[in-house]
Amino acid sequence: MEIVIKTYVNQTFLAVWQGFNEALFLKLAPPFPPVKLLRFDGSEKGDEVHLRLNFLLFKQTWISRITENVKTDDQIYFIDEGTKLPFFLQYWKHKHRIIKHIDKIRGTQSIIIDEIEFKSFLGWLIYPILYFQFWYRKGIYRKIFK
Question: How confident is the model at residue 145 (pLDDT cuts 50, 70, 90)?
């Protein structure tokens, strides 16, 4: 299954890239499930992020590794892939794209695109939950990168 969410922000793509750090990661965490960050190496190839998700009745570990990081003249992206996932996910690949965008009225902007591929035995039941968790980021991105 796939989810794609685009957010326009009023900063250059290089400024947005500089803001992709641990502090932003923590602000992007959705209200549920509560997330405890155990490890955050960064967004470069080989870096890892380790999380503990608290579903109240049980906890799950999530580990992702950055498998790709590409910088060009008009975009930067990195891909994280799940290496240890909560029981309800069998596959996770998340491409974070920051694209240079020129708006005729507002000038230089960026588009932040979350492109998620996942597999779950819960299928369409989990899709709206995951969609909302990434849609939730739009307001945070706009507030931080205004």
Answer: very high
